[in-house]
Amino acid sequence: MKKILLITLFLSSIPHMTFGECYADYKAKKNEPLRLHYGIAKINPSLCDKRDAVALELRARLRANGWVLLKLIDLFGKDNLEERKDNAGAYFLKY
Predict the structure, then answer these.
(1) Domain membership flag for residue 83
(2) Is 76 contained in some domain?
(3) 45 near 19, Cβ under 8 Å?
(4) Is 10 a domain residue?
(5) What is the DSSP letter of 21?
(6) Count of domains for the chain
(7) What is the pLDDT of residue 18?
(8) How far apart are CA 15 and CA 40, in angstroms?
(9) Tens of pLDDT along the chain (95 residues)?
(10) Sign of torsion over alpha carbons 23, 27, 31, 33
């Protein structure tokens, strides 16, 4: 019975776990002239399981520099950071 309770508690906590470090990759644009970019941003780990909150935070960061968030692509931890770094270029951890 104790094993079942422990397993249940563990499984119910999985959606609430956060990454040690959290990153988001996204697409953004500026108009007149149209410019697009793919970027990676470091996110507060407490938000990493709250996709809507991450999008709001990222939208505000980008808007401060005239960019519009088009799409929040993914949330991920440090393990997946290096494989995406080259694609982000100048927008790697800029916002």
Answers:
(1) yes
(2) yes
(3) yes
(4) no
(5) S
(6) 1
(7) 47
(8) 23
(9) 665 544 544 544 444 444 589 999 999 999 999 999 999 999 999 999 999 999 999 999 999 999 999 999 999 999 989 999 999 999 999 99
(10) positive
